[in-house]
Design a protein that fits this description.
The protein is an alpha/beta fold. It has a single domain, classed as Rossmann fold (3-Layer(aba) Sandwich). It is built from 5 helices and 7 strands; from the N terminus they run βαββαββαβαβα. It has a 5-stranded parallel beta sheet with strand order 2-1-5-6-7, sandwiched between helices. β6, α4 and β7 form a beta-alpha-beta unit. The longest helix is centred in the C-terminal third of the chain and has 25 residues. It starts with a strand and ends with a helix. It binds flavin mononucleotide. Flavin mononucleotide binds next to α1, α2 and β6.
């Protein structure tokens, strides 16, 4: 049985919802990336977009050590078609510790393919990725995609374990 960690960052709870669902499907531990900056209100939104576009770092806290897991699933909102500073900082601090990683992103209906491709630049070796709009999270098709994502992660990990024997 693989050890799975689902880690998420959220400003308005959508990513938490996705992370909790994926965590149940993959029987994973769950951890939250907390940004010391709160990005509240209109100023927070504008400043968040600016910091995301220019790929700025921030100060984050989290509890789990990703090195203790076979795979880390990163669940994140899209900010200005890119990775929010908190997630970027978490990845920069930990990418060398990840044994395997995958990601799910959600946005407000903008170009999700572009967002997934931008995340992939920071997470080039991800074993599975999925992007959706926050408006579709509860839809049947999205639920099916979460199942497919979880199945893909399980299958790839099993294959990697078999090949490593
Ligand atoms: C600073 C900022 C920038 C955003 N940029 C985009 C964007 O480029 N495209 C888009 O569709 N949604 C964008 N959004 C909307 C979020 O991606 C969307 O609301 C997401 O569901 C938020 O997830 P959360 O509830 O986990 O914080 C942005 C939100 C913020 C706060």
């Amino acid at each position: 049985m693989s050890k799975v960690l689902t880690v998420y960052f959220t400003r308005t709870e959508n990513s938490r919802k996705i992370a909790e669902e994926i965590s149940i499907k993959l029987k994973s531990d769950i951890d939250e990336i907390i940004d010391k900056k709160k990005w509240k209100g209109v100023i927070g939104f504008i400043s968040g977009g600016f910091n995301s576009v220019f790929e700025k770092a921030t100060k984050v806290t989290y509890k789990k050590n990703p090195a203790d897991y076979d795979v880390v699933i990163i669940v994140s909102p899209v900010w200005a078609t890119k990775m929010p500073p908190a997630v970027r900082t978490y990845v920069e601090e930990n990418i060398d510790k990840f044994n395997n990683y995958a990601f799910i992103v959600n946005n407000a209906g903008g170009n999700i393919k572009k967002a997934v491709s931008n995340f992939k630049k920071v997470l080039p070796k991800s074993i599975a990725e999925y992007g959706t709009s926050k408006n579709d999270i509860d839809s049947d098709s999205c639920q099916k995609c979460f199942e497919d994502f979880a199945d893909a992660v399980r299958r790839i990990l099993e294959k990697r374990k078999t090949n490593a024997k």
